[in-house]
Amino acid sequence: MTGPVASPADAIAVIDPNSYADWNQALDVFDRLRSETPVVLIESPDGDFDPFWLLTRYEDAMRVSKDNTHFLNAPRATVFTNKTGEAFARQITAAQGEESPNLVSSLVQLDAPKHTKLRRLTQEWFMPKNLRTIEAQIRELAAKTADKFVAAGQGAPGDDKIVDFVQLVAAPYPLHVVMQILGVPEEDEPRMLFLTQQMFGGQDEELNKSGLANLAPEQILQIVSGAVKDFEAYFEGLAAQRRANPTSDVATILATAMIDGEPISARDRAGYYIIVAAAGHDTTSASTAGAMLALARDPEQFARVKADRSLVPGIVEEAIRWTSPVQHFMRTATEDTQFGDVTVKAGDWLMINYVAANHDPAQFPEPRRFDATREANRHLAFGAGAHQCLGLHLARLEMRLLFEALLDRIDSIELAGEPRRAKSTFVGGLKTLPLRFTAS
Ligand code: HEM
């Protein structure tokens, strides 16, 4: 490894979940690193992470994302894979008979050829053509969600009612959509929400419900591993039901999936359910809340979109860029590669930081500004290349239908308190968004 090394303070800013809770401060660090040392080595001050290269430029993040031959996922897909975590995961998976550095084996932890074969199983299902078959169902859910929100926020005239958009809309709506796809009955949704928050919000004491601030990595891993076990048991039961009574949902595809003439393994199936369940809602929820925050802060933009619904897709796309809910993924280099003056060696670990890439001013003029009319918004929030988000058309559809429903009902909105962000290095976004609004 030869190249610039980040200061300990900057290294902490990149790997400490707390730092992402202060969004502007995190963006300041990325801006400085991008202009001074766009490819920089991050060394963990406590030695718990192997050093990795942080990429903050859009073009570098794009290059690595698209090159799935020279930059692999399998060795270590996220920064969760610290040394303690890896040892713990190996211990648990070895006891299950298939030692691996990852507790879950899912699409994001796999490379070709297995990744290609597994992804192909559901690829068509997630394309716009098939999604049209469930559009009416999602539209209905969007309308119900918007009605519920309006009912909760409408007090007597002059009544100053404050509602939390995250709790009422942004969290439950995408969860409900993804659970319908996976065939999870409504009464089990709270359990699924709890489990994904434990897995992805594992670093935020409010979201993981442990009540313990600043958990040690081993404690976080205990929480995550408990959540994984619960998920696996739950979805094996669901798969058995779908084999007995097949439908047209994703759950049925996974329950009956074959690769090279063999049924897929229980671990692969559980990993698939888990990635769709987990990746499918917290992400969309964060972008949805971000869009609403931007509109609440900018009444003029709100009025423009309300008057011209052709701007809704622009709101959706900009919200996804602006929030970049998936904050990073990692890759491992298969051979020595040059990034300007920096040589990344074979075996080195790299962080594609989507937040930094999507705020690169060389690609997005005035990147911190939320602009529904931004042109050529080719953001990287969904990634690129072989692992590009499987659910991107679904996420866009869900958000468009929801904002159409909300704009039909709401006349004005304003912020009614400080919104708070989750502490997370991986999937992050608002956990509260207090609003006041008028509706007719
Ligand atoms: C705004 C919402 C969303 C964002 C920002 C997002 C972002 C991402 C990103 C960054 C990746 C990794 C890309 C890469 O490594 O190159 C990814 C992968 C994935 N996403 Fe999404 N996602 C969203 C919504 C969804 C939804 C709604 C679903 C499914 C219901 C979904 C399912 C997946 C799956 C299964 C993968 C793994 C794909 C693979 O490795 O082949 N995502 N997503």
Describe the structure.
This protein has one domain (8-439): Cytochrome p450 (Orthogonal Bundle). The chain is built from 18 helices and 14 strands. Helix 7 (128-153) runs parallel beside helix 18 (392-409), helix 10 (189-200) packs antiparallel against helix 11 and helix 16 crosses helix 18. The chain is α+β, with helices and mostly antiparallel strands. The mean pLDDT is 90. The strands form 5 sheets. It has a 5-stranded mixed β-sheet, sandwiched between helices. A 3-stranded antiparallel β-sheet has the order 4-14-11. The chain is globular. Bound molecules: protoporphyrin IX containing FE.
Helix/strand/pairing class, anyone? alpha+beta
Q: Could you state the oligomeric state of the chains shown?
A: single chain
Helix content: 40-55%
List low-confidence stretches. Answer: none
Q: How many individual domains? A: 1
Apparent shape: globular
Distance between the termini: 61 Å
Spatial ordering of strands, largest sheet:
1-2-10-7-3
Task: List its traits.
single chain; 440 residues; alpha+beta; Cytochrome p450; 5-stranded mixed beta sheet; 3-stranded antiparallel beta sheet; 11% strand; binds protoporphyrin IX containing FE
Secondary structure blueprint with pairings:
Elements: H1 8-15, H2 17-21, H3 23-36, E1 39-42, E2 52-55, H4 58-66, E3 71-72, H5 83-95, H6 114-123, H7 128-153, E4 163-164, H8 165-170, H9 172-181, H10 189-200, H11 217-244, H12 250-255, E5 258-259, E6 262-263, H13 266-279, H14 282-297, H15 299-307, H16 312-323, E7 328-333, E8 337-339, E9 342-344, E10 349-353, H17 354-357, H18 392-409, E11 410-415, E12 420-421, E13 430-432, E14 434-439
Parallel strand pairs: 2-10
Antiparallel strand pairs: 1-2, 3-7, 4-14, 5-6, 7-10, 8-9, 11-14, 12-13
Helix pairs in contact: 5-11, 7-18, 10-11, 11-13, 14-16, 16-18
The structure holds protoporphyrin IX containing FE.
